[in-house]
Amino acid sequence: MQYSPCKGDISKLEVELHTTVLEVGPRDGLQNEDRVLPPDDRIAFIARCVDAGVRRIEAVSFVNPKRVPQMAGAEEVMAGVPRRDGVSYSGLVLNRRGLDRALAAGVDEINVAVPASDTFCVRNQGCTTSEMLDAWDGIAATAADAGVPIGMTIATAFGCPFEGDTPPAQVAELARRAAGAGAFEIAVADTIGVGVPSEVCELSRRVREAAPGTPLRFHFHNTRNTGYANALAALDEGAATLDASTGGFGGCPFAPAATGNIATEDLLYALHRSGVETGVDMERVAETGTWLAGLLGTPAPALLGRAGPF
């Protein structure tokens, strides 16, 4: 009998032959690294991703550089990225000041992170989840007036390092608020890498019930070696987009023992071998992962760069 993490479902891999991979390496991949890359290196990283065929990239974060020095110079990065038809750059925003900076810098998409855990939200963003939701409503309205698409990333959707398991009902409520304010997509993020495929299926269905018709994106970390299985489960559930980080770098500065995102090149291998098209050249991404590891002075967690394609 063939195993499916989503009980009783026929795999959508048979009919969903294309998915979008959103490259988060320039933001989430770099924000927890000891070595701070200057804007020119980050621009070169982004350009390599574009040359490999990536069409959605989380390029920058408009946060306080004193708290996250790896993300300093966001405006310089946005001024230097290659502008090509079909390529969309997003910026992470946590407050109105960040939104103003993002709009002035010319991002194509706004991404707002709202943790489902109060404790994590206070430590990461200096406010409760309820306060962040109030801020979200104002940010979303302003972005809509400016004609810039805005999405919500529900952080700590599977679990919190301080509070434990996240109740699915909390995630569903955030999704409802996101859709109510006009989010063009909702991302469900396993910020600390605790989820398993059965939980991916449950959360996917809960979020779809709360926000029918809103495309879903999933963001996984491979902290406990479940990230790739979770990504395939999300695809099976009809996720429109999957986040990944070239080289497998990443983590959150405010989450203890946080480790990297799933690696873009390793995810591409799994997708392509499963018959799913992405339009991205995985070998060129793997080369960039090796190049990035050299800049950071640390080995890349990704495996494709070591083993090669098959």
TrEMBL record:
GO MF entry, a single one: hydroxymethylglutaryl-CoA lyase activity
Domain Pyruvate carboxyltransferase positions: 19-286
Keyword Transcription carried by entry: no
GO biological process, one term: ketone body biosynthetic process
Keyword Protease: no
Superkingdom to which the source organism belongs: Bacteria
InterPro entries to which the protein is assigned, alphabetical: Aldolase_TIM, HMGL, PYR_CT
Pfam family, one: HMGL-like
Gene3D superfamilies for this protein: Aldolase class I (3.20.20.70)
Keyword list, A-Z: Lyase, Metal-binding
CDD domains assigned: DRE_TIM_HMGL
Family per record: Belongs to the HMG-CoA lyase family.
Protein name, per record: Hydroxymethylglutaryl-CoA lyase
Species the sequence originates in: Actinomadura darangshiensis
